[in-house]
Design a protein that fits this description.
single chain, alpha+beta, Multidrug-efflux Transporter Regulator, Chain: A, Domain 2, Multidrug-efflux Transporter 1 Regulator Bmrr, Chain A, 7 helices, 11 strands, 40% helix, elongated, DNA-binding, DNA binding, DNA-bd_dom_put_sf, transcription
DNA sequence: CTTCTCACA
DNA sequence: TGTGAGCA
C-alpha cells in the first residue's frame, strides 16, 4: 500500500510551501522517506512528525542551521540553552512591540487632542515631569542636520517623542527630551496648571508670532506666567495631513487670586 | 503534477 | 530564509 504522500500533499497538510520543503531538504533538516521512480519525493509519518518539530523550532526563531545540529547531535543541556535563548529574544521583541504600541496610542491620542483644541487656549494640569538635557543652540541660528549630527550624541527614536524647547535669558535655546528619572542634566518641570496652546506651523518665523500672541492672550486674561514658555514640538503628528510642524506652547501659571477665575 | 536552477529580496 | 519564474 502507498501510505506515503507527495510533496504538495505534505505542504498542504502542514501549511507550508512546496518550496520550503525542498529548501529544508537542501539544508538537511527534512529528508523524504524515499524518492519514487519518477523522482518524486515521498513522505511518511516520520517526516510529518519531524516537519512539525522543525516548524515549531522555526516559530521560536531558531535558525534552520541550528535545527539541523539540534536534531543530529545535541545534548539535553544544549536543547535547554537553545530554548532559553529563543525565549529571551522573544522577550526583547515583546518589549519592542510594546514600545510601538505605546507610540501609536500616543499619536492617536495627541492627534485627537490637536483636533479638539486647535487654535484654542486651554489650561491643563501637568504632573511633575523630568526633561533631560539634549543640546543647546543659539536662538537665532536654525537647527540644521549638521548641528544634529555634530552635537547630538545619541537620541534613540529621534522625532518619535516630544522635543521640548526652552529659551533662557541669554537667548540660548535648550532642547530637552522627556525622561522618567531625575538625575544629572535633568530639569524638573513642576506640577501645576499650565496655559496651553497648540498650533500648526508652516513657516519658520511663524513661531515667534505665535509666542507673542501667547503672551498677549495671557496678559489679556490676567494670567501670571511663572516661568519660561515651553515649546513642545510634536513632529510625529506630521504623519497626518495637513503637513507642517505641530507645536504646543505651555507656561506654568501662578495660582489665580480668589474670585478672578475666567468664565 | 513534479523536478531543477536562477535570480531576487 | 525563503519566494517567483521558467524549463523539462
Amino acid at each position: 500500500m502507498n501510505n506515503e504522500i507527495t510533496i504538495s500533499e505534505l505542504a498542504r497538510l502542514m501549511n507550508v510551501s512546496v518550496h520550503q520543503l525542498r529548501y529544508f531538504e537542501e539544508k538537511d533538516v527534512l529528508t523524504p522517506a524515499y524518492t519514487d521512480h519518477n523522482q518524486y519525493r515521498m513522505y511518511g509519518m516520520d517526516q510529518v512528525y519531524q516537519l512539525a518539530h522543525i516548524l515549531l523550532l522555526r516559530k521560536l526563531g531558531v535558525p534552520v542551521q541550528s535545527i539541523k545540529e539540534c536534531m543530529t547531535s545535541y545534548s539535553a543541556d544544549q536543547h535547554k540553552q537553545l530554548l532559553h535563548q529563543s525565549l529571551q529574544e522573544i522577550n526583547t521583541e515583546l518589549l519592542r512591540l510594546q514600545g510601538l504600541q505605546r507610540f501609536i496610542t500616543k499619536v492617536l491620542q495627541e492627534q485627537q487632542e490637536f483636533i479638539l483644541s486647535s487654535d484654542e487656549y486651554r489650561i491643563k494640569w501637568r504632573d511633575t515631569a523630568y526633561l533631560s538635557h539634549w543640546l543647546e543652540i543659539d536662538a537665532q541660528t536654525k537647527l540644521t542636520a549638521r548641528s544634529l549630527a555634530e552635537r547630538a550624541s545619541q537620541l534613540p527614536n529621534l522625532f518619535e517623542s516630544d522635543i521640548y524647547y526652552i529659551e533662557n535669558e541669554a537667548n540660548i535655546l535648550t532642547l530637552y527630551t522627556e525622561t522618567q528619572t531625575q538625575g544629572p542634566g535633568v530639569l524638573t518641570l513642576p506640577e501645576g496648571n499650565y496655559l496651553s496652546a497648540q498650533r500648526l506651523i508652516h513657516e519658520d518665523d511663524e513661531l515667534e508670532q505665535v509666542v507673542e500672541q501667547f503672551f498677549v492672550y495671557a496678559a489679556a486674561q490676567s494670567y501670571v506666567i511663572a516661568g519660561p514658555v515651553i515649546i513642545i514640538e510634536k513632529s510625529y503628528l506630521s504623519l497626518f495631513p495637513p503637513n507642517g510642524l505641530h507645536y504646543e506652547l505651555q507656561a506654568l501659571l501662578e495660582p489665580h487670586p480668589e474670585g478672578s477665575q475666567p468664565t
